[in-house]
Amino acid sequence: MTPRPERRSEQATDLRVIKTRKALRDAFISLVRERGLAAVTVLDVTERAMVNRATFYRHFRDKYDLMRFTIDSLVADLAWRPVPSDPSSFAFQDAVDHTEAILNRLAQHADLFQAVLALGGGPRLTLKTQRFVEEIIRHRLDVLGDLETPIPKEMIVPILSRWSTALWSWWLMEGMPYPPRDMAVYVVTLLRDGPLACLGLTGWAASEGAPPG
Amino acid sequence: MTPRPERRSEQATDLRVIKTRKALRDAFISLVRERGLAAVTVLDVTERAMVNRATFYRHFRDKYDLMRFTIDSLVADLAWRPVPSDPSSFAFQDAVDHTEAILNRLAQHADLFQAVLALGGGPRLTLKTQRFVEEIIRHRLDVLGDLETPIPKEMIVPILSRWSTALWSWWLMEGMPYPPRDMAVYVVTLLRDGPLACLGLTGWAASEGAPPG
DNA sequence: GGCGATGAGCAACAGCGTGTCGCATACGCG
DNA sequence: CGCGTATGCGACACGCTGTTGCTCATCGCC
Question: Does residue A147 contact residue A61 with C-beta atoms inside 8 Å?
Answer without folding.
Answer: no
